[in-house]
Design brief:
By secondary structure, this protein is mostly helical. The chain contains ten helices and no strands. It has a single domain, classed as Hypothetical protein af1432, CATH 1.10.3210. Helix 2 crosses helix 6, helix 2 packs across helix 9 and helix 6 crosses helix 9.
Length: 180
Amino acid sequence: MLSKEKIDEFFAEIKNDNLKKHMKAVAIIMEKLAEKLGKDKEIWKLVGLLHDIDYEKADINEHGLLSAKLLEKYLPEEAINAIKAHNELTGYKAKNDIDFALRASDAISGLIVASALVMPNKKLKEVRVETLKNKFKDKSFARRVDRNRIKECEKLGLSLEEFFELALEAMKEIDEELGL
């Protein structure tokens, strides 16, 4: 398993603070999903936290593969496959709960951040599930957020509304770390 020092070492190589915040947001959502689904919270959280460690280094078509290579001696195979499958350009397809969870969490974190940034005080505490439902329907809002990936929560047995609530509440727990 990964030590705190090794995680810190991976994080130290990431230059973009917003990327670090994104990874922390995905990690907390993954942890809460694992808790709800009776899965390994530590592994799911680590997958969320480390899925983008190669983002600044890898070509977009290879993104996820370098992360997987760096992490293969620390994480189980299903976790490595989830990291590979979160970027369809690698040729890996989502097949398991952890794969769908990472893809959905990756996307919903972007919708939640975008929603917070249009609030009067730019704070997560101002965002409601109803806000997310409306922003999700508005295809011109946060256009780069893949709504189909968010819908993959349904493959985990969650409705969109349940997923919005879980993800939003999770991110609110670390709002200060996220600067929101």
